[in-house]
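Feature request, filed as a ticket because there's no other form

It would be nice if the structure record came with a short human-readable summary line next to the tokens. Right now we just get the raw output. Example of a typical job, pasted below so the devs can see what we mean:
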Amino acid sequence: MFNKVAIGGTFNVLHKGHKALLTTAFMIGKSVDIGLASDEFANRFRATQTRRYEDRKQKLIEFIEKFDTEYEIIKIHDSYGIATTETAIDCIVVCEETLLRAEEINAIRFKKCLSKLVIVVVPIILADDGKPISGERILNKEIDEDGNVCQVS
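Raw output as currently delivered:
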């Protein structure tokens, strides 16, 4: 069990993959810091507009209320959030897709003489069609939030 676990993302469409990441963080941490991308940061590199920060935050809260674990949702404005500065964090939960970012975070922490974070990697969750579940695919109505292929009418 880790004292404080970090996790971060945009969480535009809260799907099965996000839920696996969050569940892992809450199962292994005494407390969890969730970095949630600000509207400006979330839209900086996306072709489609993301949902409002407050709406994304509310969906997160609705999902994580079931865990009996202390948490904090922190608005982040870059890819690192508090992970490169917070001394109390001892673990970061990422998916395979964001593993390199976690390794960058540890490199930055090393340069700042902060302790290295344990990196826990959660496998990417695949939809029924064998492709990764993603918010973009859900918004394009290819799949639903659980990875079920949508029927074309």
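Something like this underneath would help us a lot:
The CA atoms of residues 92 and 119 lie 5 Å apart.
Residues 2-124 form a domain with the Rossmann fold fold (CATH 3.40.50.620).
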